[in-house]
Amino acid sequence: MSYVTITQLALDFGIDKSNTRKYLLKKGFIFIKKRIKETGNQQNLVLSEEDARKAREIRILDGFEVF
């Protein structure tokens, strides 16, 4: 299963990580803590690829652009 980090979603949304996390929590998403090689094996908050796709769709339906 592949995952998308909050950092990547923040870049897609054009807002910082903190606001991205708060926005997604308000929309009912639940994060997974996962260690990722690309970040030096640090724990990151991630969503599944499917949840990330849904988050992007919701963001667009709320009237925002997704990059």
Rounded to an integer in angstroms, the radius of gyration calculated over CA atoms is 11 Å
Biggest sheet layout: 3 strands, antiparallel
Q: Walk across the major sheet and give the strand order.
A: 1-3-2
Count of β-strands: 3
Low confidence ranges: none
**How many domains in all?**
1
Shape: globular
Instruction: Work out the helix count.
Output: 3
Give helix and strand order, one letter per element, not per position: EHHEEH
Specify the structural class.
Answer: alpha+beta
Distance from first to last alpha carbon: 23 Å
Helix content: 40-55%
Please report which band the strand proportion falls in: under 5%, 5-15%, 15-25%, 25-35%, 35-45% or over 45%: 15-25%
Q: Would you tell me the overall average pLDDT?
A: 91
Notes on the protein architecture:
With 67 residues, the protein is α+β, with helices and mostly antiparallel strands. The protein has one domain. The chain is 46% helix and 22% strand. It contains three helices and three strands; from the N terminus they run E-H-H-E-E-H. The chain has helices spanning 6-13, 17-26, 49-61, and strands spanning 3-5, 32-36, 42-48. It has a three-stranded antiparallel beta sheet. The longest helix is centred in the last third of the chain and has 13 residues, at 49-61. The chain is globular.
